[in-house]
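Below is one protein, fold included:
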Amino acid sequence: MPLMDLRVLHIDTESTWRGGENQLGLLIEGLSRRGITSILVGRKGSALEERAKELKPKEAFFLPLRGELDLPSARRIARIVDQKAIAIIHCHTSHAHTLAFLAKLLSRRRPKVLVTRRVDFDIYKKGTFKPLTFLKYRYMADHFIAISARIREILLQGGVAKEKISLVYSGVDPQRARGGDGSYLKRRYKVEKGETILGNISYFADHKAHEDAIAALRIVRQRGYKARLFLAGHGEREPYLRELVKAQGLNDAVIFLGYWEEIRDLLAFFDLFLVSSRQEGLSTS
């Protein structure tokens, strides 16, 4: 098939917008520059649906995606594959992986299934053998993309053949970080002379370990240093983190900024960017 005729169906089952969704947008943009058509399938009611126009796929479809064994959604994906002459299904989440395989079985075209793995969690969590997971990684994908050497190692440990893995690092758009002005933020938050501003931009998930950053700030302040921690992001752990800050008497020292799309000014505002994650596939922050 000539490159200009290549059509890729991207599946992302997440309900929220995180680093993987940002990477998906960059990928669609890059493929478009190379003349490759991208069609998107996402979860109905998700952040991806709200921002689909920003990603500029050729077309976008939003389905219930009620889990990785959602047969009605898999049938709908199979119809999209046949109607749009899809050559490759690119899976951007674990649940997308299974749905893509089911859609391949249900379609007439039998597209290739490509899986990008971005997380560095063990395939078999806590060493528990799971038959579906075993089948997914041994037989239900034609090829895998690992975004870091660590993730490639995890795939190999999980039994994926080395010839089925390509190492392709995630990238960032450096223009998003250039030319920022943090002066108005320093005025807004009344930054004092000699005060150090620590910052973090990430989703509030367990493995990001924001509580460790908060604990570290408390130690720094107990030792007499003037410092505050600014957390930009959102997520299910925010109520817990707010309660933790309150319990440690750090309400004035830890500031929750909410979700920020334009990060230039934040990066200019921070003196130090603090990464507290206990696990990262490849941190693009």
